[in-house]
Design goal:
With about 230 residues, the protein is α/β, with parallel strands linked by helices. It has helices at about 10-15, 20-30, 65-75, 95-100, 120-125, 140-155, 200-220, and strands spanning about 1-10, 30-40, 50-55, 60-65, 85-95, 105-110, 130, 185, 190. It has two domains: about 1-155, Alpha/beta knot; about 175-225, Trp Operon Repressor, Chain A. It contains seven helices and nine strands. The model has no long low-confidence stretch (mean pLDDT about 95).
Length: about 230
């Protein structure tokens, strides 16, 4: 079973995304355990303070060392983390290969930043991987955390009903997924390609590969090698 702990000042933002659909199935099957921890449990005073003004001046508050370090050290007494991940715009861009690698781990700790970020000393001494989900700024790390848990959790063996399903997602082979169709075969004169109705598995597989390759050439040529 994979265990993911999430440190956040707003755990309620994560409750819904992790309680439905495939993530609910993974948790119900005992394949994935996700625990939300309110950082305010480790606040520095009775008011629940976890942030303070930044040294040197400037707009915005910074999440303090003390609550974060105390939380990390206490949670680390329960398990050894394979990765302690902090979500930040200057982190490595999250992609399918990263999701694949993280799905092989046993224990992850995710830190959701807020305000102007977290004290740099936490990043230097505790964080092992920094991840960005894109070149834009969000209000906090909760949505990136939900994205990572979903992308990684669905890869755990036994989570998806069709064991091969995740292997044919976009980006698994550096290609976008091919077009997909379902019934009826003729809708308003718009036809499903004949090859998909042929019943020939090899021809269908070849068609899917070629259409995936062409779609990738048109929409994401950056994913292809120069000789493809």
């Amino acid at each position: 079973m994979m265990h993911i702990d999430i440190l956040t000042v707003l755990p309620e933002l994560l409750e819904s995304p992790l309680s439905h659909s495939i993530m609910k199935r993974a948790r119900d099957k005992g394949l994935l355990k996700v625990e939300l921890h309110s950082l305010r449990q480790w606040a520095v005073n009775a008011y629940g303070q976890v942030d303070d003004y930044q040294y040197g001046g400037g707009a915005g508050m910074v999440m303090m060392c003390e609550p974060l370090v105390n939380a990390i050290e206490q949670l680390s007494k329960n398990r050894v983390y394979d990765e302690i991940i902090y979500f930040t715009p200057d982190g490595v861009r999250f992609d399918q290969k990263t999701a694949n690698l993280l799905s092989l781990q046993q224990n992850l700790l995710l830190i959701c930043g807020h305000y102007k970020g977290i004290d740099e000393r936490v990043r230097q001494h505790f964080v092992t991987k920094e991840i960005s989900i894109g070149d834009y700024v969000l209000s906090g790390g909760e949505l990136p955390a939900a994205i990572l848990v979903d992308a990684v959790g669905r890869l755990i063996p036994g989570v998806l009903n069709d064991e091969t399903s995740a292997l044919f997602d976009s980006f698994q082979d550096d290609l976008l997924a091919p077009p997909v169709y379902t019934r009826p075969a003729d809708f308003r004169g718009w036809q499903v390609p004949d090859i998909l109705l042929s019943g020939d598995p090899q021809k269908i597989a070849d068609w899917r590969y070629e259409t995936a390759l062409e779609r990738t050439r048109q929409r994401r040529p950056d994913l292809l090698d120069d000789d493809e």
